[in-house]
């Protein structure tokens, strides 16, 4: 139960065997490859990589297009299908046909775009002509004739009086109002060609908007013709869509080949991290010590002509972090993962942190009914969804926390609040909040002392025994003495203990300073750290606050349901209130319990001894989007 020891692997092999070796490491998923090639030495396999990226782009295009016409979403509980090398090879044999189908998809989409663009253009013409539909003037008569010009257009109603006055001043200029629609006047204009400059100036002055269309018939005739063309376009679009849907038969092939080339892309990208000569290559990587023999055997099976060496990290190395814990602690790794992983040489805090988180979450939720609901939901979710990675850790964590909540709920008498009136096995926090407050603060003292003890252990482990005595030992003595002052029979002893601790802090906390006075003053100022410890302890009062808030909300829901009285309707409404109210309370309270339990670990506990800063172990492994590799 600790940080897994990492071995630095160095592998030298023949270039002819490189593909097999890299492929073996890729499928094993046990080695984090280190980049050892210089930036200027990375042109290897660029042509092949470009070709692979091109194939990826083509298959992604086909998949994206087919998704628009067919529902390929997996159900919530549906697992990705399984695939293996044999299936990959079968699809690769028929790849030429699949690429031809993708070319067909390109052509179909281009045709679809052309039809949609034409349809949009025709609909735009119809939109412009529709207000003129009842005007029976053929549009071929509009424009400049031999002697006169005729136009159809609109002006705003507010401009009409001034327009009329100015139009009367022009000879051989006439207009006729056709209709009015809201604030727009539709009119016909005619004038001699010799007045074109004056007429255009007048029209421009009053914002005349002329109708322009390439049609020759009346607006109604043109609209009917355009609608017939749109009907034909819709038929063409339906045909294109049917042809695209028909190529959905290649969906499995497209997704499989996408995953295949994605794997190849990852592999070729790793080639650029290797050192190479004309005939050999050199690879370095991190391997968990527990997998050393497996990796060595797998590489040996792939190529007997290679040299492989494992050694401990050098002083300047910064190996990645991999944690290995038992079934109880592993889910709680999620809490530390979200904070920061242990750095090189640092201990794994999870085995110490897990029991505290387990207890704190259970106390805050503190209800048998909610605990059972939470655990059952997570248990069902794991079997239906089958999560992996962090998702599985979260579900396992909440399942365990549900068990803790049920235990503390029985001790506190919480069974969906006060629904069943079952007495507490220990005490009820609602009836005895002071006892709950003292209990919460006592748990805080225990965790803070544990954090100081962990820091002392780390210092001793690293050979800093003096630091452990001066920086943690004296604080533990001082704080213990202050706590003993609360016990009347131990007042004298407590005073002596507290004074010993305080004196030790004053004499040692300024040891890094120069001069006796500065050492003494720094030591004296260090006692102000007591306020920080007091603040940390008071922070654990949130255990009481969240415990009471969840219980009160549960009681309110029960009271509301009882107030509805008897009868069928009252029973149904009461049942709805109970179900919705308690599910809501579980969700809100559960979220609060998770957040505040995490906060106590990050600030009050980890702040005493844990630094973090490690990088997670990221092995070179297969990562498929649409399938699970077997």
Automatic annotation (TrEMBL):
The keyword Membrane applies. It is a multi-pass membrane protein. GO terms for biological process: vacuolar acidification. The chain crosses the membrane at residues 352-377, 397-416, 436-457, 469-487, 493-509, 516-534, 540-561, 568-588. GO terms for cellular component: proton-transporting V-type ATPase, V0 domain; vacuolar proton-transporting V-type ATPase complex. The keyword Isomerase does not apply. Keywords: Coiled coil, Ion transport, Membrane, Transmembrane, Transmembrane helix, Transport. This is V-type ATP synthase subunit I.
């Amino acid at each position: 139960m600790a940080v897994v020891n990492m071995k630095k692997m160095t592998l030298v092999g023949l270039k002819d065997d490189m593909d097999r070796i890299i492929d073996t490491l890729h499928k094993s998923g046990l080695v984090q490859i280190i980049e050892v090639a210089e930036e200027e030495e990375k042109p290897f396999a660029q042509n092949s990589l470009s070709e692979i990226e091109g194939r990826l782009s083509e298959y992604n295009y086909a998949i994206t297009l087919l998704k628009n016409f067919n529902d390929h979403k997996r159900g919530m509980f549906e697992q990705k299908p399984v695939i293996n090398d044999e299936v990959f090879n079968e699809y690769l044999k028929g790849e030429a046909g699949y690429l031809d189908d993708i070319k067909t998809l390109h052509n179909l989409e281009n045709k679809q775009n052309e039809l949609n663009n034409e349809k949009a253009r025709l609909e735009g013409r119809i939109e412009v002509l529709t207000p003129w539909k009842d005007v029976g003037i053929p549009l071929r008569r509009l424009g400049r004739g031999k002697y006169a010009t005729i136009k159809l257009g609109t002006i705003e109603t507010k401009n009409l009086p001034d327009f009329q006055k100015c139009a009367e001043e022009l000879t051989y200029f006439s207009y006729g109002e056709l209709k009015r629609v809201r604030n727009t006047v539709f009119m016909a204009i005619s004038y001699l060609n010799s007045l074109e400059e004056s007429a255009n100036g007048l029209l421009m002055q009053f914002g005349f908007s002329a109708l322009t269309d390439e049609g020759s018939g009346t607006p109604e005739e043109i609209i009917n013709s355009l609608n017939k063309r749109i009907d034909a376009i819709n038929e063409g679009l339906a045909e294109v869509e049917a042809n695209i849907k028909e190529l959905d038969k290649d969906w499995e092939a497209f997704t499989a080949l996408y995953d295949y080339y994605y794997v190849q892309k990852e592999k070729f990208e790793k080639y650029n991290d290797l050192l190479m000569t004309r005939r050999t290559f050199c690879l370095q990587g991190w391997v968990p010590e527990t997998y050393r023999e497996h990796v060595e055997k797998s590489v040996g099976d792939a190529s007997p002509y290679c040299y492989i060496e494992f050694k401990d990290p050098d002083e300047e190395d910064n190996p990645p972090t991999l944690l290995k814990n038992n079934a109880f602690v592993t889910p709680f790794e999620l809490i530390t993962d979200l904070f920061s992983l242990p750095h090189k040489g640092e201990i794994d805090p999870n085995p110490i942190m897990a029991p505290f988180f387990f207890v704190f979450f259970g106390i805050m939720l503190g209800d048998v009914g909610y605990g059972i609901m939470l655990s059952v939901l997570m248990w069902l979710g794991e079997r239906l969804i089958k999560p992996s990675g962090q998702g599985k850790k979260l579900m396992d964590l909440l399942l365990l926390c549900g068990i803790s909540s049920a235990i503390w709920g029985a001790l506190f008498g919480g069974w969906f609040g006060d629904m069943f009136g079952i007495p507490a096995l220990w005490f009820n926090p609602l009836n005895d909040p002071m006892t709950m407050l003292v209990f919460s603060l006592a748990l805080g003292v225990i965790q803070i002392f544990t954090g100081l003890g962990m820091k002392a252990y780390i210092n001793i482990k690293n050979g800093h025994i003096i630091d452990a005595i001066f920086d943690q030992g004296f604080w533990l003595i001082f704080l213990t003495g202050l706590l003993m002052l609360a016990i009347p029979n131990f007042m004298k002893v407590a005073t002596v203990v507290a004074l010993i601790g305080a004196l030790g802090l004053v004499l040692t906390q300024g040891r890094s300073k120069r001069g006796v006075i500065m050492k003494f003053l720094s030591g004296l100022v260090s006692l102000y750290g007591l306020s920080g410890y007091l603040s940390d302890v008071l922070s654990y009062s949130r255990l009481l606050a969240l415990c009471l808030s969840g219980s009160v909300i549960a009681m309110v829901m029960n009271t509301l349901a009882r107030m509805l009285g008897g009868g069928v309707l009252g029973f149904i409404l009461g049942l709805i209130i109970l179900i919705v109210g308690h599910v809501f309370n579980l969700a809100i309270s559960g979220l609060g319990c998770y957040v505040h339990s995490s906060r106590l670990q990050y600030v009050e506990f980890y702040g005493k001894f844990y630094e973090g800063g490690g990088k997670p172990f990221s092995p070179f492994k297969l990562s498929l989007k649409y399938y699970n590799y077997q």
